[in-house]
Specification:
With 377 residues, this protein is an all-alpha fold. The chain has helices at 2-29, 34-62, 65-80, 89-118, 125-150, 155-170, 188-192, 195-224, 229-257, 259-279, 284-292, 294-312, 318-347, 350-371. The protein has one domain (2-371): Up-down Bundle (Growth Hormone, Chain: A). Helix 4 packs antiparallel against helix 13 and helix 13 (318-347) packs antiparallel against helix 14.
Length: 377
C-alpha cells in the first residue's frame, strides 16, 4: 500500500512542479500582463475555497473518499485540455476555473484516505508524502533544463499528460474509511467554534497568503534579475529537496518538540525567508540559502498543520477538516496572496511585495503563539 499511496503523491505534485513555477512564465510568453497573470493564478487558488468543501461534504456523507478522488482527477484532466482550443484571457479564466474546481477536490480527500490507511501510525504520513516532493523536484528541475532550450510552449501538453497520470494512479488505491459510524459525533459547527480550531485555520490562511507572491511571481522575479530557466528550476527543486529532509525527520520532531513550538519556528523562518528574498535577489548564494528555508515555510508548517487537523477533526469530520484546511489556506490564503501580489508588483515593486509577505508571516506567528499555546501534541 505504501507505493500505491506514494505514487499518487508523486504524480500530483509533479503536476504542481510543472504548473506553479512555469505557468506564469508561459502566460508571460503569451503576452499577459503581471495583473492578468496574478488573476489567472489566483483563480487556481480561489476554487480551493469552494471545491474542497463541496467534495468534502459529499465524501463525509458517503464515506467514499477515493471515488471522489478518481472522479475529480479524471474531470480535471479533461477540463484542462480546453487550453488547446483558445488562448484568450477570458477563455483561459474559464478553463482554469473548471480545471481547478476538480483538481483541488482530489488532494484533501486523498489526504484523508492516506491517514485512514495509516490508522494509529499517522506519524508515518511524512514518509509517504515525501514522494510528492520528489515528484515536484523531478518535474521542476527537468522542465527547467528543457525550457532553457525549447521555451515554455510545450507546457500545456506536459501538464495534460501529468493530470492523466494522476487519474491512473488513483485507480490503484483502494477505499478505506475510518471505521467509525456517521452518527454520534459532535456537530461540525461546534468543532469550528473551538478557539484552537479558529486559530489554526487563521494561521494557515496567513502563511499561505504570504506564499502568494512566491508561487505567482518567484520565477518571474528571478528571470527579471538575470536567472535562466534552468537556474530557476534548480532553485525551486532545492527548496523541495529541503522539504524532503523535513518530512524524513518529522516523525521524530513532533513527539520531541511538540506541534506548537514547531509551528512558531516555521512562521519565524518563513518571515525571514521573504525578507531575505526581498533584499538579496541579486546574490545567488543568498538565494540558495533562502530556498533551504522552504524546509520550514512549507515542510514543517504543512506536516504540523496536517497533524493538528487530523487531531481536531475526528471521525466523519476528517474529510471536511482536510477540505477546510485546503480551502482556507491554499485556497483563500493563496488566492488573496496571489491577487494582491499582482497589484503590488505593478504598484510598488517586487521588494515591497515580499516585505509585505514577511509581515504577514510574522502575524501568523503571533496568532499561533496566542491561540495555540494549549493545543495537545
Amino acid at each position: 500500500m505504501y507505493w500505491r499511496l506514494s505514487g499518487f503523491y508523486f504524480f500530483y505534485f509533479a503536476s504542481l512542479g510543472a504548473l506553479i513555477p512555469y505557468w506564469g512564465l508561459y502566460l508571460k510568453s503569451r503576452g499577459f500582463s503581471a495583473v492578468e497573470i496574478g488573476e489567472l493564478v489566483a483563480i487556481i487558488m480561489a476554487t480551493k475555497i469552494v471545491a474542497p468543501n463541496i467534495w468534502g461534504w459529499i465524501a463525509d456523507h458517503t464515506g467514499r473518499h477515493m471515488r471522489i478522488v478518481r472522479l475529480a482527477s479524471l474531470l480535471a484532466a479533461l477540463a484542462f485540455a480546453g487550453v488547446f482550443f483558445a488562448q484568450g484571457y477570458w477563455w483561459l479564466a474559464l478553463v482554469m476555473t473548471l480545471f481547478s474546481f476538480f483538481w483541488n477536490a482530489a488532494l484533501p480527500q486523498f489526504e484523508a484516505t492516506t491517514l485512514n490507511h495509516l490508522g494509529e501510525e499517522t506519524h508515518r504520513y511524512s514518509s509517504i508524502r515525501l514522494w510528492g516532493s520528489i515528484g515536484f523536484i523531478v518535474a521542476v528541475a527537468g522542465l527547467g533544463v528543457l525550457f532553457d532550450f525549447t521555451g515554455t510552449g510545450r507546457l500545456p501538453v506536459i501538464l495534460t499528460v501529468l493530470f492523466a497520470a494522476i487519474w491512473f494512479a488513483s485507480l490503484a488505491v483502494p477505499e478505506r474509511n475510518d471505521g467509525q459510524p456517521a452518527s454520534g459525533h459532535e456537530p461540525i459547527l461546534n468543532v469550528l467554534r473551538r478557539p484552537a480550531v479558529v486559530s489554526l485555520l487563521l494561521v494557515c490562511f496567513l502563511i499561505q497568503a504570504s506564499h502568494g507572491p512566491y508561487y505567482t511571481f518567484y520565477s518571474l522575479y528571478l528571470a527579471d534579475h538575470g536567472y535562466g530557466e534552468s537556474a530557476i528550476g534548480q532553485l525551486w527543486a532545492l527548496g523541495v529537496l529541503a522539504e524532503i529532509g523535513v518530512f524524513l525527520r518529522m516523525h521524530h520532531w513532533l513527539p520531541r518538540f511538540g506541534a506548537h513550538r514547531l509551528l512558531l519556528a516555521a512562521t519565524a523562518l518563513t518571515a525571514l525567508r521573504w525578507l531575505l528574498l526581498a533584499l538579496f535577489v541579486d546574490r545567488p548564494v543568498m538565494m540558495i540559502f533562502v530556498q533551504t528555508l522552504h524546509a520550514a515555510s512549507f515542510g514543517v508548517y504543512h506536516a504540523v498543520a496536517i497533524y493538528l487537523v487530523h487531531r481536531l477533526f475526528v471521525g466523519r469530520h476528517q474529510g471536511r477538516g482536510q477540505a477546510l484546511y485546503s480551502s482556507l489556506s491554499f485556497g483563500a490564503g493563496g488566492a488573496a496572496g496571489s491577487l494582491l501580489a499582482g497589484y503590488l508588483w505593478e504598484g510598488v515593486g517586487a521588494q515591497w511585495m515580499y516585505t509585505g509577505a514577511a509581515l504577514t508571516a510574522l502575524l501568523a506567528g503571533l496568532v499561533a503563539w496566542r491561540g495555540l499555546r494549549d493545543v495537545e501534541t
